Amino acid sequence: MKAYFARHIQVFLATLGDLIRHPGASFLTIAMIGVTLALPAGLYVGLLNLKQLSHSWDRGGALSVYLHRGASGQAAVAAMRRLPGVQSVRYISPRQGLREFEQQSGFGRTLTALHENPLPGVVVIRTPSSPQALTALVAALRTEAGVAHVQSNLAWLERLDAALALGHRLVMILGALLGFALILILGNTTRVAVVNRATEIDVIRLVGGTDAFIRRPFLYTGALLGGLGGVCALILLELSLLLLHDPVHNLAHLYASKYSLTGIGGGDALKLVVIGTILGWIGARWAVGRQLRQSVQ
Amino acid sequence: MIELNHIFKRYPGGNEALSDVSFAVDKGELVFLTGHSGAGKSTLLKLISLMERPTRGQILVNGHNLGRLSPRRVPYFRREIGVVFQDNKLLNDRTVFDNVALPLVVAGITGDEVRKRVQAALDKVGLLARARGYPLTLSGGEQQRVGIARAITHRPVLLIADEPTGNLDAAMSDEIIDLFKDFNDHGVTVLIATHETRHIERLQKRVIALGRGHMVAST
Question: Is the pTM for the entire model greater than 0.90?
Fold first, then answer.
């Protein structure tokens, strides 16, 4: 058992040595794998950021209840306070609404040209986040006296969630496709390596080397190239995030938000390298197995 | 050690390389396999070392029925025999030491044991001083001796050589044959294919002669 591990370590070190001695060709392969892995990983990180952004919003959020013209704001507020699931209630009178609109819309004084205030009274209700409670509350509010319209942000949050789920699925499909591409890249690299070493393989067979012995260095090379490709993908990803940092910061600043991009986490980074290693091993195993069967004596 | 029973070997295209060949070699024997080129000597050695399989007939080597040996067992069978090739089949990007060590490395032997055995084998063929060199820096005779060292380093019970003196001058080829004689004196069974009758006359050993794929004579 000890000898077995010693042999594996020996082959691993020899493979590493080979890689360091011939960096040119290996570098191209590693870069190719890096780009292949960086694409789905980058989309994944983008999606994570979007998700985080949507979570930072008030999920339960605010319900806006528009009252009929002439309905009593005071009465409506008092009635709504008694409904279950209501956290807080704020009444915006038509006059208050017009003032806020003047300040924020930029129409300013042109609004004074209107003969009368066109805005209804609005009650803004804050409520805890459960979607079921929100739906029930919306239904209850609609039956209240003086309520003209209930505006909930539930629908578009649901749409955003659905869109994110779709994005997630797309990333998975793209990841699977590019993972397959990675297997093909390493399969081809390995095939060329096996062909180049055909004489050596023949001699090893003639002196009693098993197929497992012949395969071993190729498998280590494949796994190592795949893992290093994963590391390369991480570097590409971090570089991209670094380039995006300032523009995102500026944009967030304009929206008066403290939002900033999150990079790939330690766990996900490790996953990426492990996935690269495993896919590299699979690609090499597939190619070397095929090649050895073809040249069987 | 070796037993062939009614061996036929036909290659695709109808070329019959061997036809009804039968003979036996006892443990500890040294036997010459002789005949003109194209007589089937190389084919016969390939069948005995399991590089090829016969079309018909049975071969027993060191207690194994080669026809019943599964592909998975072939590497382990090859570790019981040593083969010397006419073109020596050395790996030119590895040192002499690494070439000779190969049969040990593939068998999972490591460390000091490898060093000791390789040095012993190289000492035997008189090339210990060239261990760190590369095959292409050696003369033809020296390369052939590296090939022989590689064939004996794992202490095989049977040594097979295909025209081991093919490209060498007389003095050099006598040395090579004397090496085989020496291994045989130490108990290794040896089968040498050669078309040079000079060695056969010099050593006075058993001869199996082939002609156009048939057994011509067996002394």
Answer: no
